[in-house]
Design goal:
This protein is mainly alpha-helical. It is built from 7 helices and no strands.
Amino acid sequence: MNAPIVFAQAVGPSNQAELIYIWNQATSEGKAIILCLVIFSIMAWSVMITKALQMRRARKLNQYFTAEFSTQKHVLDMFDRRIQAEGCPFFVVYQAGSVELDARLKADAGEGRKSQVSLKSLEHVKRRLENAVAQESLKLESGLILLAIAVSGAPFLGLLGTVWGVMSTFGHVAQQGSATLSTMAPGVAAALSTTVAGLLVAIPSMFGYNWLVHTLRTLTVGLDNFAQELVSKMETEYLSDE
């Protein structure tokens, strides 16, 4: 009846001692690589959490802004009301386009606005919107390069530690002149631990990177579609027929 309990108590300390033993058997180069991988892991998880929260917030704010924008009778109504929505990509694009359109409508017209603008003026507004979309996409994308580095670099860094550790083990065995299991196993196990550490960094980073890239693509397409819709409404309301 008490055998499973005794077995569990024996396995727990054994596993803990095993990891400590492998760490103690690792070379200084292997330990340095593992510490680098730990730093990579902390950075990767920080980026994944930060970007996930940023994109989630951007998506929600875009939904709120779209709901408000769809109720406006005129394209510049929200701009005239001085509505602010910090952190909302749609608002940044809308604000940039509205500022440019407002400047074109007030050009050579004193303090008031003209009722229409030329096609050339509207082209300037389109370019301003495209620039705003590009800038917002870059903001959302910033930091993902660290995940890409973790995905592609961590396994190779771990493999480097393994190859180095195996090479050091075989060199030590050659110097001793005896190739027994007790002399080779600790060094090989410690060498393989760097590959395990590399995979533990790369695998979560890969899943996180793919999910973030998909979410980024969705947000970018949404920005493009909103910019096109905004331009269409500006053309309908302010483009001159001449």
